[in-house]
Known about the structure:
- Chain A has two helices and six strands, in the order αβαβββββ.
- Chain A is of the alpha+beta class.
- Chain A has a three-stranded mixed β-sheet with strand order 2-1-6, covered by helices on one side. In chain A, strands 4-3-5 form a three-stranded antiparallel β-sheet, with no helix packed on it.
- Chain B starts with 11 loop residues before the first strand and ends with a helix.
Amino acid sequence: xxxxxxxxxxxxxxxxxxxxxxxxxxxxxxxxxxxxxxxxxxxxxxxxxxxxxxxxxxxxxxxxxxxxxxxxxxxxxxxxxxxxxxxxxxxxxxxxxxxxxxxxxxx
Amino acid sequence: xxxxxxxxxxxxxxxxxxxxxxxxxxxxxxxxxxxxxxxxxxxxxxxxxxxxxxxxxxxxxxxxxxxxxxxxxxxxxxxxxxxxxxxxxxxxxxxxxxxxxxxxxxxxxxxxxxxxxxxxxxxxxxxxxxxxxxxxxxxxxxxxxxxxxxxxxxxxxxxxxxxxxxxxxxxxxxxxxxxxxxxxxxxxxxxxxxxxxxxxxxxxxxxxxxxxxxxxxxxxxxxxxxxxxxxxxxxxxxxxxxx
Lengths: 107, 243
């Protein structure tokens, strides 16, 4: 969370903002980040910063895999990345590892 | 509000789409360019799975690994260096220095994982030109280290027979990031009732991308296959970076 906040504060300061009102983060399901833990950490690390009173919006991004046999993407339901059509396991992960600061609302 | 009539907070939304791990990724790419002539291993596991013992064994066996090509081609010598991460103490580094090979200890303080920046700094204390193998022993933790690219070539995740067959199911993010999974302490598998077929089944489901080895760093069981793999990974890489 400190990395995310640090990125947000850098942008806010570059814009001459006095306050951050809202942060929107996209968290991939395979990013290794737990949204509840992130929210808890945000409360702690944002104290006495421009993001002190900011609302945190966390959007979970599901994993998307690619099946080379069926030549299509799919979203696995569980941790076994099995193509719903041919049932082969995919190791080609196209989306789901990201931890992205998507937007900031400032003034 | 500034208190003056007509003056309002002007809120604006900045659309950023900024990768939060950009800074670490940037340092990781810098490490990759520093490590171009090296094979770099990132060794990950829970505390106590046997990372240090396996690395100790590797350092002890460099001559064996140098000669471990299955086709018996003359390959050259393995020249290792090690970077160890722990919250505190340099006990692991001290153990590893008994083999006279260069070892740098990073103490992370409260940080539960290694990051690319500190690994890069530690690497500058090694004479990288004299090495062809860099082994990074990560902090014992199956959660956070999965997220941080250190600039490695191979992520090697260890799990020991005392940890339970369902480890891969419980830590899918870590196991899905592994190039190699090593099941350690195989010499006591029977004593603890470890079911190897069960864990291999889980690994095929959760981490089908990973090569799996079973070994004991204490008795040497299973090391031949693992060393052949290290030998091929190292000398294929060296061959591909020779201009």
